Amino acid sequence: MNVLPMPHIGVLPAGPLGTIADVSGVTVGHCTLAQGATQTGVTVVRPHRDDAYRHKVPAAASLINGFGKSIGLVQIEELGVLETPIALTNTFGVAAVAQAQIRAAIASNPQIGREWPTVNPLAFECNDGYLNDIQALAVEASHYARAFDSAACDFERGSVGAGRGMSSFDLKGGIGSASRVVSVASKAFTVGALVLANFGRLPMLTIDGVPIGRELAARRHTASRAATSKPEQGSIIMIVATDAPLAARQLKRLAFRAAAGLARTGSVYGHGSGDIALAFSTAYTVAQEADFISTPPILNDTRLDPLFQACADSVEQAIIDALWSAKTVTGRDAHARLSLHEAAPDLAQLLNSRTA
Q1: Domain locations along the chain
Q2: Which of 154, 199, 284, 300 is 20 to 30 A from 169 in CA distance terms?
Q3: Which candidate, 244, 265, 269, 264, places its Cα nearest to that of 254?
Q4: What number of H helices and E strands is found in the chain?
């Protein structure tokens, strides 16, 4: 199938890769489990190649709607740093992944939990139970290790890793990524986003301002239209990275702007939706054993608007990228989610018609 070029959101340019890996040092890896009723996996985002516990990066999270079962957010809120890579998986895989993160940190730093404080694992989740037999508890510690070891600048998106069993707008969702480059105080900075998209009902779907979901929903038979009228109960995890020198307080403000990009695609942050954004900066690290922290000059809050725009645009683009990159998946009990391109073979015409 010839894939239509994805529309570019906004006017800001993308980085050379067009993904979160445009932020120097950031890499992403997947472990995909795709056999029969097991359609799930793990995705790992590494902020840099050094030991994440010894060289922490500043970070902050914003809860847009807190219907979720993540691990690690309380300490992020209190201390404002990451101590492990960021892991994404299904809801029932969180415990196994968090334990794998703890074991990996201890293996590299035997002082953890003894001479040093304990480690704060950071694992996010979405419920992939429509396509995946989530009760099978298929995700294991080894899958986290495989995703971690495979982390690279060049990584797949769509129906891979944690995104394997995810649904978005009643279509196939999953992993998406994007980046934007901005000029602030005569310096170029990059903002990148990676999303685990598992939210939305088909009539809500809006791509680059075009409400194509209404047309696609109208084409489905009556029973399908009734199903897509149910309340939104999905979730999305939005990871935002930047090389701009920001404090944790500012990163929390940046993370909150992910909600703007999410809203543009049609989300209303439904009651049962877990919508969480986390932002981190690679501009400096916080050494575990340091008495004092050396930081570059931190941007003034009055200079953050370009970064806010880049965050919103890259998150919106990443959500579209997840839909654009995903392939049709059939899983548990013959449940299936069509890819966007299969569901809308005339996608080009839909996007070119700016009618409601």
Answers
A1: 20-291+305-350
A2: 154
A3: 244
A4: 10, 15
What digits encode the pLDDT tens for the residues 301-334?
999 999 999 999 999 999 999 999 999 999 999 9
Distance between CA atoms of residues 196 and 279, nearest Å: 14
Q: How many Cα atoms are found within 13 Å in the side-chain-facing hemisphere of 354? A: 2
Statement: the pTM of the whole predicted model exceeds 0.70: yes
pLDDT band at 114 (very low <50, low <70, confident <90, very high): very high
What pLDDT is recorded for position 272? 81
At 2 the pLDDT is 52
Residue 334 gets the label, from left (phi > 0), alpha (psi -120 to 50) or beta, of left
Asked if residues 96 and 60 have their Cβ atoms less than 8 Å apart, the reply is no
pLDDT(100) > 90:
yes
Query: What is the CATH architecture of 20-291+305-350?
Result: 4-Layer Sandwich (3.60)
Token digits of residue 23: 């932020």
Q: SS3 for 62?
A: strand
Backbone φ and ψ of 132, nearest 5°? -105, 140
- Could you tell me which residues are beta bridge partners of residue 175? 158, 196
Contact criterion met (CB below 8 Å) for 38 and 91: no
Report, as residue numbers or ranges, the catalytic residues. 235, 273, 275
